[in-house]
């Protein structure tokens, strides 16, 4: 695992140029698929589990990202049945009792690192 100086548990996932603007890619770390989102419109990056908890589809990296509600909560909508999830908290925003895991993202020198200490 490539490390950033002074940073523990950071996984080099890809180059920032590998992730489309306002879109996502999927990378694998151990047995976990991680969806990485380059939310260019907001100037923000997010990472979540790639599996949608609704029907266990590996799909969230291909979901549509946007902002929701008065709080402008950043979200991703699963391409299958459009259930959407907060990119900040992982909470389901479409009223169901689902939750996805989120991971901190650090961009350094054109590289995307994911904090993976919670991944076994
Ligand atoms: S599998 Fe994602 S919303 Fe149904």
UniProtKB/TrEMBL annotation:
One of its GO terms (molecular function) is metal ion binding. It holds the Pfam family Rieske_2. It comes from Pelobium manganitolerans. It comes from the Bacteria. One of its GO terms (biological process) is nitrate assimilation. NCBIfam families: nirD_assim_sml. The lineage of its organism: Bacteria, Pseudomonadati, Bacteroidota, Sphingobacteriia, Sphingobacteriales. Residues 11-114 form the Rieske domain. The keyword Ubl conjugation does not apply. Keywords: 2Fe-2S, Heme, Iron, Iron-sulfur, Metal-binding, Nitrate assimilation, Oxidoreductase. This is Nitrite reductase small subunit. CDD domains: Rieske_NirD. InterPro entries: NasD-like (IPR052034), Rieske-like_NirD (IPR012748), Rieske_2Fe-2S (IPR017941), Rieske_2Fe-2S_sf (IPR036922).
């Amino acid at each position: 695992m490539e490390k950033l100086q002074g940073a523990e548990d950071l996984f080099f996932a890809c180059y920032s140029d590998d992730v489309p603007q306002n879109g996502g890619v999927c990378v694998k770390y151990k047995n976990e698929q991680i969806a990485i989102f380059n939310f260019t419109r907001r100037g923000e990056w997010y990472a979540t589990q790639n599996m949608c908890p609704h029907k266990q589809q590996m799909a969230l990296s291909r979901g549509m990202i946007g902002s929701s509600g008065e709080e402008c909560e950043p979200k991703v909508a699963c391409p299958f049945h459009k259930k959407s999830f907060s990119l900040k908290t992982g909470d389901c925003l479409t009223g169901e009792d689902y939750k996805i895991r989120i991971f901190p993202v650090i961009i350094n020198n054109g590289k995307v690192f994911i904090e993976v200490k919670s991944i076994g």
